[in-house]
Amino acid sequence: MNHFEMELEQLEAKIESDIDFEKLTELCEHLKDAVKEILDSCGIYFRIFSRVKSVHSIAEKIKRGNYGTEINPKKIQDLVGLRVVLYYYDDLSICRDITESTFQMIDDWSRPKYSADEFRATKINGVFRFPTEYFNLYKKELWKLPIDTTFEIQFRTVFFEGWHEIEHDMRYKSFLSDDEFWKGSEELSRVLNCILANLELSDWSLIQLFDQLSYNHYKRGNWELMLKSKYRIKISDTETLDPRIVEVFDRNRNVAKQFFKGSRKHFIKELLKLDNPHVNYNLIVMLMNNLDVHNEEIAAICDTITLTRDDRVYQKHTFTRLESNILFQLELPLLHKETRLIETEFNNAAMILYKWARFKLNPVFEDMPAEISSYKNSLPGYQLKITYHPEKLSFTMKLQHIDAKAVGTLWHLHASIALMDDGLLHFYHITSRDMPRGISQRSTFIKPSFLADLSNKIGIVDVARLSNKAQFVTKDEQLSSMIELVQSAERKLPVVVIAQHTRDLGSDNPAIFRDYDMNTFTVNGTRLAKVVGHYCHVMMLDYEMIADFAYAFQLLAEDIHGCICIFWPNYAGKSMELFTRKMVIDTQFDFNRFAFHDDNISEKAFRHKLVQMIKNNNVSR
Hints:
Elements: H1 3-18, H2 21-41, E1 46-52, H3 55-65, E2 80-86, H4 91-102, E3 105-110, E4 123-129, H5 132-135, E5 150-157, H6 161-172, H7 178-181, H8 186-220, H9 223-231, H10 243-251, H11 253-260, H12 264-271, H13 281-293, H14 296-302, E6 322-333, H15 342-361, E7 375-379, E8 382-389, E9 394-402, E10 410-419, E11 425-436, H16 450-458, E12 461-462, E13 464-465, E14 471-473, H17 476-487, E15 495-499, H18 525-532, E16 537-541, H19 546-552, H20 557-560, E17 564-567, E18 577-579, H21 581-585, H22 601-619
Parallel strand pairs: 2-5, 14-16, 15-16
Antiparallel strand pairs: 1-2, 3-4, 4-5, 6-11, 7-8, 8-9, 9-10, 10-11, 12-13, 15-17, 17-18
Helix pairs in contact: 1-3, 8-9, 10-11, 12-13, 15-16
């Protein structure tokens, strides 16, 4: 074994030790599923492949390129790679726009450079950062190897799919120069160029063919086939165009012609704004009419057509060991009003949990009584134990069940309500899940659906009562109460304070919260509270209260208008976090599911970030 081979072997051992390839493969599957879901939603014809570089391939690339050295301080960027094979050449630009809007891109797209008389395989490559929500699943300490936390996406057309493999092995990985490789066989090199030229011509010709086909169907009045060949997206053969639209097209061919002339690229971008739509001919007409045509008769027909979602579920069937994850936990006292008997409050709270369990499990345990009582039963895949002692004001529920959709997944739920030594009823809950390693772990948080009823009808207290509505701070006494809440050592949940960045000019009485314009706040606290209000306090700070708030917490005046502050509870061991208005409006998604929506993306992005921070705090306690 020579010196180079020994170094390569040592490097391979270090790579295998430093990198958790099983978790990296799981991350790769997440990315593949994410891209597949997006492209599926807009009906593009494609095939997708993924890979994680092998230990040997990584070691060779590091050595060959001298990565992480003084000569080349750069890092490898394609540890994880996706390859998307497109059926139509014009989808390259569409998919380029989609991915660079969806993920955080590094540098620009790379593509082959060639002169007018030279032919090369048509492809584009882009490098993107790992989305945080996926990379958080990589629990091992980050490697110190010259490998970046990025992934590469390559798009190419189906005609060049086979050619790529030839080029990769016979040119890219060949140690010989191109001139030397073909020396003495120049005529074969010319033949190879002819093959490449024909592949490129095939890409171009296919689009021209379908455009001409669409025009032929337009002339013959075959409206469904005209739309199918024009827009070239996946539509079931069983779909039909609404007869009323057909009648309009038959009567006025100029209207039909406007849909024939529509932009396929613009249509697909409109399609991306919808949430998993069921794609059919009616949807094409509806979106293109709203976008370009603007025919009132077509619009009136479309108003009566109901859009439906595509609820197909793609499952990966596999067996492996289970990993346990806590998905939600909460332990707090319930609200007790002196005007109510504590026994009544206990029974009302216990009944909320009992009814939830009975409704959920009635198809399995048909003998479960309608009236609240102790109950115990088990069947394959299901276990339920309820212990009810009204004389002790004690209710406990333990539930285990299989997941009906996710292979090999078990859910565990433990909830209780009991009278404690402080004279208050306390609510305890934890949800966890056992799931095969390697199966999608994206859903790392889930609150029980009965929590809203328990909070709204009984009340859950963390120093102050929790609510799924933002609490507006408009008066001095409200500010004092908020400061007391923030500074309380008894507080167990975060407090999010959203400061108004401008006056609400649309209201004569800014103290009336219903008149607030959410545009005067950097983040929409009403929407935030609907998501996290049962396990976090959300406060909306009036413009007039900002100076006193800044003084109370020693904040700089230039940072405070339109800022967001998170006050973590003492047990978290974290200092208050302040995000200025500029920081909020500069926020971007690293995986932007709303890239083609018309709404305020930075507001959505930061609100999403807040929700993730609060959820992570809940499951990490």
